[in-house]
Amino acid sequence: MNETVQVAGIAKRYGKSTVVKDVSFTLRAGETVALVGHNGAGKTTLIKLMLGLIRPTTGAVRVLGEDPATGDVAVRQRLGYLPESVSFNMALSGRETLRFYARLKRVDATAAEQLFQRVGLAAEAVDRPVRTYSKGMRQRLGLAQALLGAPRILLLDEPTSGLDPALRRNFYDLITELRGKGTTVLLSSHALTELEGRTDRVIIINNGVAIADGTLEDLRRIAQLPTRITVKLSEIDAAPQWANGGMNWRRGADGVLDADILPDRKVRLLHQITADAALISGLTITEPTLDDLYAHFLKAQVTK
Ligand SMILES: Nc1ncnc2c1ncn2[C@@H]1O[C@H](COP(=O)(O)OP(=O)(O)OP(=O)(O)O)[C@@H](O)[C@H]1O
Fold first, then answer.
1. Belongs to which family (predicted)?
2. Residues in the chain, pLDDT under 70
3. Is the CB of 14 under 6 A from ligand 1?
4. DSSP readout, the chain?
5. Which of 10, 17, 38, 44 is the pocket-test mutation for ligand 1 (most atoms within 8 Å of CB)?
6. ipTM for this model
């Protein structure tokens, strides 16, 4: 896969405080990456560094092979950005707003028109002043602005905050479509649950340090957190042999057994359980969530 963004050993200092510390990662074409972290962790600062709005104190950022702060304007045209709080001129209509940004970005304003449909902004709304827009409509307009000029890299800061579930789904559908076309999408978020299954990779930032970087599978493998296995027995008082093996099975009154199983025992145990098909009427496997992994990596960093 083509590398589109390279962040190499960057630090950012403001006066005495270092808000980004020795962060390195690479983003590739067609990859959707989530940047997650608490408030103040350094997510927006990293996005600003990739946009070239601020310079790293040490280290280097390359976007499509160039320094985004000094490189060719063509590189900046290939970068789309949705800020955390989109604020537009309330007196302008959606159409005027998009034309304004198209001129700033030096892209064809007529092509911009198609973006309204793409982001799901109703035709009747585009000529109304932005002041009459709901939060979701403003966010769609913001996204249309970020998509101007068909960027190869999209940097989206908290793009789904304040969106209702239907809009959020639309948003992720659009991201999936862009990913299929080879766009690199980096989105920062606090909403860990909604990111599961929607991003290829997760980078966890804490106090300016990248404490984890990988696919959900990678993070699960590194964290070695247990998987919860829940078995519904066909007969309430059945005593399957696999439930004696010192795994701390909890037995509910309704014939439900559950236990937290470490990764190295999981597959073997599942074989044993499913071989006992007559004894079981249900089986649920609950893998650690991104929330669990996030908590794990934060704790691991604190206790280091
Ligand atoms: N221009 C600045 N001058 C001084 N400190 C700054 C500046 N910009 C950001 N910071 C500090 O850097 C740290 C990281 O801020 P940043 O906005 O990157 O966090 P964030 O992860 O995006 O948080 P949030 O989720 O709240 O947006 C914070 O402690 C913030 O106060």
1. Belongs to the ABC transporter superfamily.
2. 1, 245, 302-304
3. yes
4. --EEEEEEEEEEEETTEEEEEEEEEEEETT-EEEEE--TTSSHHHHHHHHHTSS--SEEEEEETTB-TTTS-HHHHHTEEEE-SS----TTSBHHHHHHHHHHHTT--HHHHHHHHHHHT--GGGTTSBGGG--HHHHHHHHHHHHHTT--SEEEEESTTTT--HHHHHHHHHHHHHHHHTT-EEEEEES-HHHHTTT-SEEEEEETTEEEEEE-HHHHHHHHTPPEEEEEEESSTT---GGGGSSS--EE-TTSEEEEEE-HHHHHHHHHHHHHTGGGEEEEEEEPPPHHHHHHHHHHHHHT-
5. 44
6. 0.96
